Amino acid sequence: MASDFDWTAEAIACLRVLWDEGGSTAEIGRRMRISKNAVVGKVHRLGLPPRASPIRRDGSGPPRRTATPRVRGPGLPPLPSVAAARPVPATRPPPVPPPAVMVPRPPARQPCCWPIGEPGMPGFRFCDVPAKPGKPYCAEHAAVAYAPVAARDRPDGPQPRHAPEARIDAHDLTA
To answer: Which of 114, 108, 118, 140 is nearest to 128 (CA)?
Structure first.
């Protein structure tokens, strides 16, 4: 199949002739050495008359074939069973215990998920301190994990919040 196929006037004329002959899109594609999708697309763009669908939706047409009934022949005799030879006395099923009463318990405290060390290295572990409720980390690690972005990115760490520092402009340095 050629991917660099150009629809020349001769190719379009050939497509029209093959389409009028009633060939399938796959057959036209094989004859023209292009994909059937290229044929379908060009037929659609040229506005050629569509083909009748081979799928019947109205139920008309030849009746559907029904499955042929199976031939029943002689079967094998039933296997002798030990259970059939000796009757089993009827027993009552064991009594069902009453359902257990569920006592609500406070949720178990999960350990902190803060990694300590380098994964894959000996000594790697997670912090074992109980995590804060609703958080994956203990109080100490939650303070680090949930610090404001601006405070985390400063090289000297979070700064106290107070009045902004005095600003020095370039023209103040020239005087």
So the answer is: 114
Say if residue 132 is exposed, middle or buried (CB neighbours under 10 Å; 0-12, 13-18, 19+).
middle
Q: What three-state secondary structure class fits 111?
A: strand
Say yes or no to pLDDT of 10 above 70: yes
Is the distance from CB of 28 to CB of 40 less than 8 angstroms?
A: no
User: In angstroms, rounded to a whole number, what is the distance separating the alpha carbons of residues 68 and 37?
Assistant: 39
Across 15-24, 86-95, 163-172, the highest mean pLDDT is recorded for 15-24
Would you list the DSSP string of 38-57? Answer: HHHHHHHHHTPPPPPPSS-S
Which stretches within the chain are classed as H helix?
9-21, 25-32, 36-46, 82-85, 139-145, 149-153, 170-173
Give residue 110's pLDDT. 85
Whole-angstrom CA distances from 141 to 119, 161, 167 are: 18, 22, 35
